[in-house]
Fold this sequence. Notes:
It comes from Helicosporidium sp. subsp. Simulium jonesii. This protein is of the alpha/beta class.
Amino acid sequence: MQCVQGISGTRVRASCVGARPNRQVRGCQRGVAGRAEAPSRQRPDYVPHHISDPNYVRIFDTTLRDGEQSPGATLTSKEKMEIAKQLAKLGVDIIEAGFPMSSPDDFQAVKSIAQEVGTHVVDGYSPVICGLARCREPDLERSWDAVRHARLARVHYFIATSPIHMEYKLRMSKEQVLRAAVRGA
């Protein structure tokens, strides 16, 4: 996994430095063929930037966008739709469906996922469908146009903040990048 410095419209805070993995499965029951099955839990209502149950872990999946970053890993719109449906069946909370500004095909795939998967409610649950956008008005509008049909729609925006990216890719000063990030919010 590669970490990239940046300012993002989504912030995740986790206390994991020095934490040891918990390998025990607590509160599970044995099911078919001795496999552990997690007890059913009530999913808390989706409220952006807040989880009412401190024991609940919100799952954010980027397979449909970030999964295509590997050389040779491309998905058709049909494959993206099938993956999105399976992610929803698994109970994934947030599905980042793509980067609508990247191509007309990606825009259409994200829009179709928002219209089909993002409007389908099962047991009171519907995943948040989001699109990725750079901190530029045309990107933000294009992403919103793609996801707005979902019951729970969201746009994630980003801008590079490493000195090399700011100087050579964006050709912006630190102050200009900060202003662009605030405007995007």
